[in-house]
Specification:
single chain; alpha/beta; eight-stranded parallel barrel; 13 helices; binds (3S,4R)-3-hydroxy-2-oxopiperidin-4-yl beta-D-xylopyranoside
């Protein structure tokens, strides 16, 4: 199946518009001679559901924020025209959706879904169970183990049910490992390790068609964390859980050091285990790269391009997503002080060498 080519969308829209104009003109001509008194048909805008469109061989995605899609037109344009897959950066997280106990607020996530569908883009679900971005009522609620299980079950059934048939994948469990140990997060403390198989079970029960992923940083490197990830998933599967693959966040310079052979090896190990992989949150911090600013930009392009090419060649890599639309808005500015500029478009919304490198590696125009 051919890779979806970002630059094609405008041409396709233009062709569709011309066809529409032609059809309207022809219809109008016909009506004047054959049925002058007929009431004109009402125009209905039909948005094709994601599931009924042909999927690209590899999705090319970006994380987006509801707020910025509302307020920044250039951000919106890049998101809709240059990518074919969107991941809500924060708007599908527990702390947003169930900010108040028992009230599920899908307004922001739905707005992103509507934006995606209106622009012919697919959606990735991120994330159901994470130790961060949890609401106060939950972490300070002193719930018993059983109460917490019930809260999580209701949450997963409700959220996965709401987006049933609309997301190509869910990051079901996010960043549950600390090195090779389970991270001591809220879920482990209140439920115990069973929160992981339970989450996968409830998600699969609710939407058996969607792909279910374990997502974490550092899985692009050979080492104990990746070994633990693979062994955890193998154990889960041997116990009957449905797990489709691993989201490799690939935060180069923040979470990971880039060694291409590590990415190749880890993707191949997942493939040998019958698992898929998605590059789920890639960014490459500029600060840590050698040379002057031009050299840094070239090296950044080189790293992005290599990961995209490895993903394309792997055979089990379904998508390549960058964690943000442009350097003007990057999550790294909240946590590191070194120069970041970690994305494919710069602070002035211009494509960087890294954008061309990724498009080339994925096989686009
Ligand atoms: C980050 C967002 O980018 C920030 O805006 C937010 O403040 C915190 O979360 N790993 C993940 C993502 O799985 O959900 C995180 O996103 C980045 C690290």
């Amino acid at each position: 199946m051919p890779l979806w080519i970002p630059g094609d969308r405008r041409a396709r829209r233009m062709t569709a518009l011309l066809c529409l104009l032609l059809m309207v003109t022809l219809a109008a001509c016909g009506q004047t001679t054959t049925a002058p008194t007929r009431t004109p048909a009402r125009t209905t805008v039909v948005i094709t559901p994601a599931a009924s469109r042909a999927k690209p061989a590899i999705f090319f995605g970006t994380a987006v924020q509801y707020q910025l899609l509302q307020t920044d037109l250039q951000y919106r344009r890049i998101a809709s025209d240059k990518f074919n897959l969107l991941t809500p950066e924060n708007d599908m997280k527990f702390g947003v959706i169930e900010q108040r106990q028992g009230t599920f607020d899908f307004a922001r996530a739905d707005a992103i879904m509507t934006f995606a569908r209106a622009n012919g883009l697919w959606l990735r679900g991120h994330t159901l169970v994470w130790g961060q971005d949890l609401p106060d009522w939950l972490v300070n609620g002193h719930f018993t183990r059983q109460q917490t299980i019930d809260i999580l079950k209701t949450y997963i059934l409700t959220v996965v049910g709401h987006f049933k048939g609309q997301v190509i994948a869910w990051d079901v469990v996010n960043e549950a490992l600390d090195g090779s140990q389970l991270k001591n997060n809220f879920w482990l403390q209140t439920i115990g390790p069973e929160y992981i198989p339970l989450a996968f079970e409830w998600a699969h029960q609710t939407d058996p068609q969607t792909a279910l992923f374990y997502n974490d940083w550092g899985d692009d490197e050979i080492g104990p964390k990746f070994d633990a990830t693979l062994s955890m998933i193998n154990t889960l599967r041997s116990q009957g859980a449905h797990v489709d693959g691993v989201g490799m966040e690939t935060h180069i310079g923040f979470g990971s050091v880039f060694r291409p052979e590590d990415v190749v090896t880890n993707m191949a190990r997942l493939k040998a285990a019958g698992l898929d992989v998605e590059v789920s949150e890639m960014d490459v911090q500029l600060g840590g790269l050698p040379g002057d600013s031009n050299t840094k930009l070239q090296e950044q392009a080189n790293i992005f391009g290599q990961v995209a090419a490895i993903c394309k060649a792997a055979g089990n890599c379904r998508s390549f997503t960058v964690w943000g639309v442009c350097d003007r808005y990057t999550w790294l500015s909240q946590i590191v002080t070194s120069p970041q500029q970690p994305l494919l478009f710069d602070v002035n919304y211009q494509p960087k060498p890294a954008y061309a490198a990724v498009v080339k590696a994925l096989g686009g125009a």
